[in-house]
Write a structure and sequence with these properties.
Layout: H1 7-18, E1 23-27, H2 49-56, E2 62-66, H3 71-78, E3 90-93, E4 98-101, E5 106-108, H4 114-129, E6 137-140, E7 145-148, H5 155-172, E8 176-180, E9 183-187, H6 193-204, E10 208-213, H7 219-230, E11 235-240, H8 245-248, E12 253-255, H9 258-271
Parallel strand pairs: 1-2, 1-10, 2-3, 10-11, 11-12
Antiparallel strand pairs: 3-4, 4-5, 6-7, 7-9, 8-9
Length: 275
């Protein structure tokens, strides 16, 4: 806890420790609970992550995973279902558009945006025209389409080359492009992790919040915690890794990656009484 470098962050962790039964612990999945890998389907929770969450969950108001992945996919890759201690885990997938509750084991979601199907059909042509069809990986996310460039010989060059064409394609179908670490995601507007986090914190009546993330898609959640803090709710912002300076510079605490985040969560659980 000594590595928390801001007064706001120290106030946040103090509030969580003082009254854990009113604290929400919210975490991104990829890059935060799970290491980044070239093939998104091969992502798995960091060893020790699930036990750390299971130790923490009975001591706080709620643990929530907030991810751009489909909720069911995050549950499968994280192996979150049926874990003792995680009976009330919530996964907010697709930036909050989907919700999986461990207590029921079901996913609740509205109908998908019609533009996603149109974009899904058109993306291969855009990639082929840019000469990058074989250098990219297209991830079907149900309510979004993500184009990963980290497999390319020049990942950043491919990313930059595709940003404009994919943004134009998204706009034609009423979608937006969300950039990340060597990934461009085409998804509906008006949904982000900040909205999802704020709504969930209010739903459970939290009095403090911790949010951990690693990528540009986590910036709205960081902004949400900053807004909650300005309204009087203590909060702690944790950044996993330093690959995204815009996130790392706003964090109260930066850890090198998922392994160190697991250590932090485990240490935190040991300081909290069972509620």
């Amino acid at each position: 806890m000594d590595a928390i470098r801001t007064a706001a962050g120290r106030d946040g962790i103090a509030a969580i420790v003082a009254r854990p039964s009113r604290a929400v612990i919210a975490l991104d999945f990829d890059g935060t609970l799970a290491p980044i890998v070239p093939d998104p389907e091969q992502a798995r929770a960091q060893p020790g992550a699930v036990p750390a969450l299971a130790a923490l969950a009975p001591r706080v108001a709620s643990v929530a995973v907030v991810t751009g992945r489909p909720a069911g996919v995050a549950v499968r890759l994280g192996d979150f279902a049926g874990v003792p201690g995680l009976e009330h885990l919530v996964v907010l997938g697709h930036y909050g558009a989907e919700r999986w509750d461990a207590v029921t084991g079901t996913v609740h979601a509205p109908a998908p945006h019609p533009g996603v199907a149109a974009v899904r059909s058109a993306v291969p042509g855009v990639l082929a025209e840019a000469g990058l069809w074989h250098d990219t990986y297209v991830e079907e996310k149900g309510r979004a389409v993500a184009v990963h460039t980290r497999r390319a010989s020049d990942p950043q060059g491919a990313f930059e080359a595709l940003k404009g064409p994919l943004s134009d394609l998204a706009a034609r179908h009423g979608l937006v492009v969300e950039p990340g670490r060597m990934v461009l995601e085409l998804r509906p507007p008006g949904v982000d992790k900040g909205v999802a986090l704020t709504e969930y914190v209010r739903e459970v009546g939290a009095e403090s919040v911790l949010y951990a993330g690693d990528d540009l898609g986590d910036l709205p959640a960081f902004a949400a915690v900053e807004k909650l803090r300005s309204d009087g709710m203590p909060g702690l912002l944790v950044c996993s890794g330093t690959e995204v300076p815009d996130l790392a510079t706003r964090a109260d605490l930066t850890v090198p990656g998922p392994a160190e985040l697991v250590t932090f969560l485990t240490d935190l659980s040991r300081t909290l009484p069972t509620t």
